[in-house]
Amino acid sequence: MFEELESFSADQWIKVGSKLKDWISSKRIVIRDFNIKSYESDNTNNYIIASNNPCIKDSSGRKYSILEINTAKKYDFKYWQFMRDEVFNNVEVLL
């Protein structure tokens, strides 16, 4: 989970978004730990990014989705059903 994201420049956010797309779509990922040799593994990662900063952009729904979540929608069950459908539909596309 990413929370309270940094205030980067627009160019830096483009690089972050590009890296995130790589992490999401790669079947394999390199694991690097401090003072331990890196190794490659199956990519079974899931990511949640919570931020008030509109940092990650250009969601096409294929690699990731940006969900507009607002407490004003707290009892809007039709809206949350749409959100649920959107999330599960995108997961099926990635499988």
**Coarse structural class:** alpha+beta
Total beta strand runs: 4
* Residue-averaged pLDDT: 75
- State Rg: 16 Å
Q: Give the SSE order as H and E letters.
A: EHEEEH
Number of helices: 2
The total number of structural domains is 2
Instruction: Record the strand order, biggest sheet.
Output: 1-4
Short description:
With 95 residues, the chain is of the alpha+beta class. The chain contains 2 helices and 4 strands, in the order E-H-E-E-E-H.
Secondary-structure blueprint of this entry?
Elements: E1 2-3, H1 10-25, E2 28-33, E3 36-42, E4 49-50, H2 77-94
Parallel strand pairs: 1-4
Antiparallel strand pairs: 2-3
Question: What labels would you give this structure?
Answer:
alpha+beta; 95 residues; 2 domains; two-stranded parallel sheet; 2 helices
